[in-house]
Amino acid sequence: PERFLKENQFYNSNVVGKYCEKRDPHLACVAYERGQCDRELINVCNENSLFKSEARYLVRRRDPELWAEVLNESNPFKRQLIDQVVQTALSETQDPEDISVTVKAFMTADLPNELIELLEKIVLDNSVFSDHRNLQNLLILTAIKADRTRVMEYINRLDNYDAPDIANIAINNELYEEAFAIFKKFDVNTSAIQVLIDHVNNLDRAYEFAERCNEPAVWSQLAKAQLKQGLVKEAIDSFIKADDPSAYIDVVETAHKTGSWEDLVRYLQMSRKKARESYIESELIYAYARTNRLADLEEFISGPNHADIQKIGDRCFDDEMYEPAKLLYNNVSNFARLAITLVHLKEFQGAVDSARKANSTRTWKEVCFACVDSQEFRLAQMCGLHIVVHADELEDLINYYQDRGYFEELINLLEAALGLERAHMGMFTELAILYSKYKPAKMREHLELFWSRVNIPKVLRAAEQAHLWAELVFLYDKYEEYDNAVIAMMTHPSEAWREGHFKDIITKVANIELYYKAIQFYLDYKPLLLNDVLLVLTPRMDHTRSVSFFTKVNHLQLVKPYLRSVQSLNNKAINEALNNLLIEEEDYQGLRTSIDAFDNFDNIALAQKLEKHELIEFRRIAAYLYKGNNRWKQSVELCKKDRLFKDAMEYAAESKNADVAEELLSWFLEK
């Protein structure tokens, strides 16, 4: 009857099926299936537990709506039906469309666990569809969402799924081991190690994996990760295995921070073989310097290279690595920097030689000062000779020596420099100042030789501060400040006064007042030489004032030679002073001579003074003076008083005055 029901087209499936339900539910199913009586078939299957038949019908029917109905939560027979679909219906079908609709129905009903069962049956049980890519993809993806514990098993058992896409979905769902397994299985090793690095965060496993693969790209990725973690040695080992110089900037920066210079040398040696970059070669030189591999460094820079040697030399110098800096500066012939480097290495002779080649004042200064600090004064002097010829550098040099107390060496340096072709005023001046401070005995000789080449005002101040009065006077004289020279001599006579010099200078002073100060000075210190100086002063001196001065201080007697020498001027004050001196000395002959020779004095006053003199000769001179002033009567009276008859008669005769003559005759007659 089953065959009849299937093949006979001429009956109403609904009616026949209804009839068969009570007698043979299986036949009812056959009738209903023929007429696609979906609801009736499902009901009869549910009532009679014919879930296998129901499952086969649903798979063959391919009706999404019908599937949605039976897979609904409200269906109490859902579980039994699903079991039969998985166990029987799907394994029997060979039609991919059946499979597709069934799977979609399960997905639509949101039954992931049941879907996994379904797919396992199709894919894992060696059915025709075991190698179906989409089904394998779907099985793994469903497991990722619904049952993560199964994902690894599926990944390992299945071979025909979209590995990269599945792996990325696994990563997004934090299934890192599963993603790693996929990449590893399909030999996408760079992605596999990236999972270990970025997501598993296990560099040890990443290293083991790289060892196993031994692919350059894998080693590169591992190296970059190790570098980020600061594992410089390990990173460099990995880069070298990868033969990858691409990350050289990052490697160099990290090695600098961690001080991994030996490892950096290895890396840069590898990098240089691959890329002849200036940066790589420069950093390799610096790394050689850091590891003190000077032989390698020297060999490297001797050959052809693209390194910025000057820049690396500066870096070594700044980092106080002077030995490498020396090699580098020598290589680029930067003698200025080489000189300073040699100074730091205490190779002073070499520093001086390099400074000579550099021939820069700044270099000479730095080398010179370093030699001074190390008390290498011979070399310091060699440098200093190139500095002192620059007037604007001289002060710095002198201060440097002086501040450290090296006066002797500084003086030696300047003495040696005086003979240079470019010797200038500043050198002679500063040496004079140094002599004034530290070697006063040599200053005079220096000034006598070079006074015309020194800055006299500057040296004057120094001499004054050092109390070198003789040198001060010498300079004032040369500077034609004669007034100051004279004042200095008179203020400090024991050191500064020299008779000939004083007499020479005093005549040149502008201020005549200094003459009178000089007279007082000689009175105080050199009274016996007073007349000499007065004779020198005569041409410009006010003699009346000088006589008044000597009279006041009661020293006329002392200056008698002076008075005699200037009497020829017939100055009244001089005449009177000298006449008074002659009276005091009772030199009547001298007085008579003076009166006869020089008439500019108060005759009557002198006559009146002399007529009372105790010596007759002076009274005679009084009579003589009266006569000279036509006072005949007084003159004759004086002669009569002293019984100077001859004089009386001569004067009376000279007077040609009858009265005077008669009076004299009468007097004689009386007597």
Automatic annotation (TrEMBL):
Keyword Repeat: yes
GO cellular component, one term: cell cortex
Source domain of life: Eukaryota
Membrane topology: Peripheral membrane protein
CHCR repeat ranges, renumbered to this chain: 1-83, 90-235, 239-380, 385-531, 534-671
GO biological process: intracellular protein transport; positive regulation of endocytosis; receptor-mediated endocytosis; vesicle organization
InterPro entries, A to Z: ARM-type_fold, CHCR, Clathrin_H-chain/VPS_repeat, TPR-like_helical_dom_sf
Location(s), subcellular: Cytoplasmic vesicle membrane; Membrane, Coated pit
Keywords of this entry: Coated pit, Cytoplasmic vesicle, Membrane, Repeat
Molecular function in Gene Ontology: clathrin light chain binding
Keyword Iron-sulfur part of the UniProt annotation: no
Record-linked PROSITE patterns: CHCR
Name of one Pfam family that matches: Clathrin
Entry-linked PANTHER family: CLATHRIN HEAVY CHAIN, CLATHRIN HEAVY CHAIN RELATED
Family per similarity comment: Belongs to the clathrin heavy chain family.
Name of protein: Clathrin heavy chain linker core motif domain-containing protein
Organism: Homalodisca liturata
